[in-house]
Amino acid sequence: MLDGPPDPARWDTTGYARRYLGERLIEYLTKPATQVKIAEGVGFFPVVEEAVPEFPEGGLKIIAEGVSEQSGAADAIAAMIPGGLGGRAGEFSDIYRETFQRILGIGVTAEAIQDVLDDQGAKLTALYEDTGAEFPLPG
User: Fold this and answer.
1) Which single residue of 36, 79, 118, 137 has CA 20 to 30 Å from 59?
2) Of 42, 38, 1, 37, nearest in space to 19 by CA
3) Cα(42)–Cα(37) distance, integer angstroms
4) What are the residue boundaries of the structural domains of the chain, listed by start?
C-alpha cells in the first residue's frame, strides 16, 4: 500500500498515481457500508464478512448471511466467471447446463462423471481458445 497522496512530480510519468487511486477505490468499495449499498442497488453480495452485520433485517440480510457462510465454508468450491467470451458467453452456460444434465441423467441416460467432465472440459477449453479469452484455471 502506498503511503500518502501521490507526488505531483510523478503523477503522469509512472503508475504511482493510478496505483494510489486504485488502492483508495478498493478501500472505499470494501467498506461495510459501501458493500451494503452495492448489494441493495445491484444485488452483488459483500466480499467482506464485516459487511454482513450491517444489513438491515430482512431478505437481503438472510441472503447475505447465507452467501457469507457458503463462501467461508471449509469445503467451498470457487466457480469461474465466464469473462472475455463476448457474444459467445451463452455457450459457457450451455456447457455447464449440459454437464449437469449428462451427469445426473436429466433427459438423457446418466453418464460416467469423468467421461462427461473430460468431454465438456474439451468444449470449454475450445470455447476459450476460439475466442482468445483468458482461461481461468481452478485455484
Assistant:
1) 79
2) 1
3) 8
4) 8-71, 86-131
Does the pLDDT value for residue 1 go beyond 70?
A: no
Q: CA angle 33-39-44, nearest 5°?
A: 125
- pTM score: 0.47
Please spell the DSSP secondary structure of the chain, one letter per residue: ---SSPPGGGTTTSSHHHHHHHHHHHHHHTSHHHHHHHHHHH----SSGGGGGGSPSSHHHHHHHHHHHHHTSTT--------S-GGGHHHHHHHHHHHHHHHHTSSS----HHHHHHHHHHHHHHHHHHHT-------
